Structures are given as structure tokens and as C-alpha cells.
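Quick one: C-alpha cells for this chain, please?
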Amino acid sequence: MFRKSLSLLVLTMAAGAAAAHADSLAPFGVASAYNLVALGTVDSHGVTVIAGTIGTNADVTGRVAAADKVLYGTTIGSSLNNDPYGSLATYGLVSTNGLVAGQSFNMNGGGNAFAPGSNGNINFNDGGHRVASGSSGIDFNALRTALDLETMLLAGQTANGVVLGTNQPGHNPSWLVLKGTSTTLNIFNLTAAQFADTNHNIDIEAPAGSTIIVNVDGVNVTLGTGLYYNGNQTSGDSAANANILFNFSTAQTVTINAQFNASILAPFAILTGGSQMGGTFIAAQIGQTGEVHNVEFTGTLPYDPGSPVPEPGTLMLMGTGMMSLAAAVRRKMSTK
């Protein structure tokens, strides 16, 4: 109830600025350029509640950014072909508080790495180098505040798509069918139980090219089976699902245990998984995952259906009231 009410407050405050900036170029600001982003969470006094670490040692084909540390060595930047926002990234690897001694990274693309100190080893196979001082190119405090607000804005949208359910005529009986008809924006609401159903894959049916937002309720959320889009399941670096975003505005944990090609916004959650993933993945903290593929989210996010969301930098300029609301959310989440 707290989060729903807060979403409505934010939408009301933001309505007057809906036309301030169209965010078609970077739906998550600088985070749009990264495959994995760990924001961390802080309380109202700025004390860390969840450390913004990335703890996977699976291969990541895009860029990686952690508000704290990237804990384990892995291969980064192997495939940046689907890279519409790459120019926003200063570095291919951002490990704000340095690396862990004994860990070794292979940078196969994405450019230089930002990692203060001398711990860890980075093999640059694309000619980059390590930067140990100065700015990472990411203001994580500002980014965190903006994306906290963004997840609420999305959660407050009215669904215009229908969850048809299972065993639908003309559809595979093993599918949970979501049906949208808009050629621009389709919004769905799923419960944690529907997302976790181990007997039915999720099939999203919507016009090709439309933006698809799936708001998933629940505190501890696990994907039970695979994800399909118009009857097809994609994998690897395919951009076929680059317009699909799953928004977890109330989640504290999100677990992906089945093949999943879509982006995730879960700024209060710890994200983990054991299966291949392809998308833009933004969470408070990221643990072990399956192989992660670089598929940057290219949909257009709404204020109200049909209206653009401002980029995180613009959200930061929309007043102390909205930033106070974001702080209230962090306080609420940290007491759960």
C-alpha cells in the first residue's frame, strides 16, 4: 500500500513536467549503456543498506558497473554489437571501490576499466587500460535516486494489456499468455505467483516494435519457466526482445532460474540466477548469474500512456519533493 500510494504521489507531481524531456535515447540514463548495473541502497542518513556489488563470475558480453565492487573475475565486453547507448559509457568496467586481490578479468571490449587501487588483474584484449583515480563517469547517488523514482513511475501506470491466463484456445497449453494490442505501449501486471509458475512459460503477445512493460508484484520473486515473445524464445545477443522491460518495484530478491531475454529494473533487490539472461539488468546488488548477454533496452518509457519519461538527469532537476519521496522509499525498504 505504501509503494502504491507513493507511486500515485510521484505521478501527480511529475505530470506537469511530462513533456520536459523525451527519453527515447537513454531510458535509464548512463545505466542504459551497461549490461549489469548494481546501484546499492542507502538509508536516509546515507548509510549503506545493500552494498552495490556484482558477484557473478559468469561471462558478461556487455559492460559492467558496480557502485561498490565487482567481486569476482570474469570476461567482460565480448559482444557490443547491440550497443545503441555505448557512447554514454566512460568505461567498460566500473568497480568503484577497487577490485578483490587475486581476481582476474578479461576485457574483450568496452574500452578502459575504472578500478582504484592495485588489487586484481585486468587483461585488456581490446587495447584498453586501467584507471585508478578520478571519476568513474557515473554519479551513483544521482542515478540511484532517479531509478528509484522511475521504478515507482512505472509501477503506477494503468495496465492496458490483459493477462489471458493458461490453456487459451489456439495457444500452447504450457503458456501463460499476456495479450497487448497497442502498437506503441503495452503494460501488464503480474503477480509473483504467476511469474514463478513452474508449469507455464510466459508468452507475451504484442505488436512488433511496441514497448512492453511488465510490472511484477511481490517481495521475493523467482522466474519459474522461460519467456516467449509472440511465440518465440530468443537467446544470446539477439535484440528481438530489446523492447521488453520487467519492473520489480517492491522486490527485495529477484531470481532468474530459466532462460530470460528481457531487461530488468529492480533497484531495491538483490538479483541472482542460474540461467542465461539477455538484457539490461539494474538492481541494488547482483550475485551469481548465468551467462549474461548484452541486449540494451530500447523501448520508450511512459509517464502516462503515450507520454515520455525524463532521463535520470532530468528527474534530478524536478525538485526536492520528488527526491524526498525517493528517500522515503529507501527508508521503507530498509526496514523490511
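The longest helix spans residues 140-155.
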